[in-house]
Amino acid sequence: MKVTAAEIAKYMQILEKTPDRMTAASDKLTVAQLQGRPGSDEWSINDILAHLRACMDVWGKDIRTMLTEDNPRWRHLSPRTWLRKTNYAQLPFHESLATFVQERQELLELLRNLAIDDWSRSAMVKQGDKERQQTVFSRVRQMAMHEEGHWAQIEAILNMAELEGNV
What we know:
about 10% strand
């Protein structure tokens, strides 16, 4: 599949705006609100940030590997599994956000410098007994769409805080 510049721009825009959206959301809430879970089985904004950092770790490494190795292969690593091996969820929100912003800028800089053909560089990823091809573009698209889904959670928390008069 040939990737177009328009498709790349669409997903890059999402990745570019996530740090600013997170910063703007955090400016409206107290530390307690950032750490607070809306329900017993729901994630706080801090939990979401920790999860997004783990996703960026895993998928960012995948992207870098595809760019530096020819036709690599590896076993699938779930960002949730990786998250359990980190302390991201225990870090103060603003410290974690600063790291997220810095790491996102580094990833974006790498991606902005790619030639159009680099977006099609691929790897074979084994999950269970199945193996699937992933490309740099498919990982970027996955990351962007995944972040959009979590943004809906953050907006719900912000809306709840506004309704309660706490924003």
